[in-house]
Structure to design on (285 residues):
């Protein structure tokens, strides 16, 4: 007899939340490197950082604050605890929801993912442990991913009667061979960090206790560059993706010429010719 969905979900690592009070702050934000780097931490480790409506609302507020703060040049998204980045939407919260409550929560979750995709600042994910369902979808909604050696990436929605709705049917086939993406979505079985790295979904793998230092090293390298140029090249990549070649080139050149006439280009070239490191001001927005 086939395993029932609950048994299979438990085998993936899902568990009931620990009997602990909810933290006051479900999303932690720390500004480091002189305020240039924002570290965003999902803070429900007792529930493997499962996303409740309240956590999603706090995450939206954090992302919108960062979007309005020009001094922040790059953001890192990660999860608290030793087991998971996030196992996605909290199924224990959803168990008693009416159809209307589910749809209203879906709107909140969609706004989280939209804010991740549309943030002008660079934002990447440091995945520690399980990234399942909406957790995996949050990660692939950022600019790139690094991971701990024990990270797992999966979309088990079909095991509980759902078709994935947070972006994985759109983005996984762009990160992975389409057949592998389809297999993940249809079976619900996860892939390891090593397989995700081999296939190009994850940029680099690190021992768990070195993951955040590696993330901060990457973030500081980004923050040292011209924020105007970094944001421009991000827009060129995002807006040109999927376009015909000449249209993508036109999008790229529009961003290139905007950087050519910007003061950061003058500062950068002058510092280079003088054998100095440039010091770029915060962008206007």
């Amino acid at each position: 007899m086939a395993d029932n969905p609950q048994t299979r979900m438990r085998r993936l690592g899902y568990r009931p939340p620990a009997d602990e009070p909810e933290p006051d702050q479900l999303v932690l934000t720390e500004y480091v490197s002189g305020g240039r780097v924002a570290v965003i931490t999902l803070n429900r480790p007792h529930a493997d950082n499962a996303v409740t409506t309240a956590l999603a609302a706090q995450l939206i507020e954090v992302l919108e604050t960062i979007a309005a703060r020009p001094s922040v040049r790059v953001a890192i998204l990660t999860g608290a605890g030793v087991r998971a980045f996030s196992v996605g939407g909290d199924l224990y919260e959803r168990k008693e929801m009416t159809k209307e409550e589910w749809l209203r929560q879906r709107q909140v979750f969609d706004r989280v993912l939209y804010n991740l995709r549309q943030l002008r600042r660079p934002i990447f994910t440091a995945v520690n442990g399980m990234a399942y369902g909406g957790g995996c979808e949050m990660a692939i909604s950022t600019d790139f991913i690094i991971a701990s050696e024990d990270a797992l990436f999966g979309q088990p929605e079909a095991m509980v009667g759902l078709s994935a709705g947070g972006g994985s049917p759109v983005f996984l086939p762009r990160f992975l061979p389409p057949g592998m993406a389809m297999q993940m979505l249809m079976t619900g079985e996860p892939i390891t960090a090593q397989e995700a790295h081999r296939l190009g979904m994850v940029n680099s793998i690190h021992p768990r206790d070195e993951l955040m230092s590696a993330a901060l090293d990457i973030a500081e390298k980004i923050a040292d560059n011209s924020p105007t140029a970094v944001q421009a090249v991000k827009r060129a990549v995002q807006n040109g993706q999927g376009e015909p070649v000449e249209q993508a080139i036109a999008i790229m050149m529009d961003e290139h010429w905007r950087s050519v006439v910007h003061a950061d280009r003058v500062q950068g070239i002058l510092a280079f010719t003088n054998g100095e490191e440039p010091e770029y001001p915060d962008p206007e927005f």
